[in-house]
């Protein structure tokens, strides 16, 4: 947060054949934000216990906003590494979405499968990742304890419905977004740009909270505004 107030969370998942890094943060410069060095250290520790000379890394994104792809360049020259481009055509091509945004695709990490679920609404190329091993649902900026900025209302509503349906059909331990902006006081968020949040809400969210989002979206019915709820806000400028 001292480098960039967005302070997005990133996630690193390990399979037998490859690791998956979800998002690369808001800061490109390794001197301030040594993401590549940190990821390499984690992978080295993993390989010390699980030797594999051909181990790969996939760098993917929850969506294409700048605070989620800034450090992509740190991985440009890394061997056995695939960086999935954040634009919609790149996302569709890499995962093989032939009916975007309808049918999820599977990403095989080797003994660990991650489902990649189309999730436009906040951003046109947004995706949600479901880890079958931990039952975690990585929701990016679509759902987190903070300001949910909506770019496309119909797309956002469809995505929320889709994620709720997914949670009804699959075990979900927690939903993890990429930011925390709400405080521990219901309906009170920290102002944009603040770098000190001593009483922020916890990052993990529940399926019950997701259903609250679904109810809120239905009730708002596309009404523009900055709508405040206990665990999140919905910001929508309108068409």
Walk me through the structure.
This protein is an alpha/beta fold and 239 residues long. The chain contains four helices and twelve strands. Helix 3 runs antiparallel to helix 4. It is globular. The model has no long low-confidence stretch (mean pLDDT 98).
Tell me, briefly, the overall form.
globular
Kindly report the spatial arrangement of strands forming the biggest sheet.
5-6-7-8-10
| SSE ordering | EEHEEHEEEEEHEHEE
The end-to-end span amounts to: 32 Å
Strand content: 15-25%
Low-confidence parts lasting 5 or more residues at pLDDT below 50? none
The radius of gyration computed from the alpha-carbon positions, rounded to a whole number of angstroms, is 18 Å
């Amino acid at each position: 947060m001292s480098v960039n107030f967005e302070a997005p969370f990133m996630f690193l998942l390990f399979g037998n054949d490859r690791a998956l890094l979800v998002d690369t943060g808001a800061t490109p410069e390794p001197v301030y934000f040594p993401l590549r060095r940190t990821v390499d250290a984690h992978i080295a520790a993993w390989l010390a216990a699980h030797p594999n000379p051909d181990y790969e890394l996939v760098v993917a994104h929850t969506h294409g906003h700048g605070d989620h792809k800034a450090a992509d360049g740190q991985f440009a020259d890394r061997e056995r590494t695939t960086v999935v481009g954040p634009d919609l055509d790149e996302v569709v091509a890499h995962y093989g979405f032939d009916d975007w945004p309808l049918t999820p695709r599977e990403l095989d990490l080797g003994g660990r499968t991650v489902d990649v679920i189309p999730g436009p609404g906040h951003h046109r190329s947004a995706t949600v990742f479901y880890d079958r091993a931990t039952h975690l649902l990585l929701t990016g900026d679509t759902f987190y304890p903070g300001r949910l900025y909506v770019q496309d209302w119909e797309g956002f509503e469809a995505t929320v419905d889709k994620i709720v349906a997914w949670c009804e059909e699959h075990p979900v331990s927690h939903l993890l977004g990429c930011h925390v902006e709400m405080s521990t006081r219901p309906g009170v968020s920290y102002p944009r740009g603040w770098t000190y949040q001593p009483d922020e809400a916890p990052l993990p969210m529940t399926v019950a909270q997701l259903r609250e989002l679904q109810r809120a979206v239905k009730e708002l019915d596309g009404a523009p505004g900055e709508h405040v709820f206990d665990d999140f806000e919905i910001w929508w400028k309108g068409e």
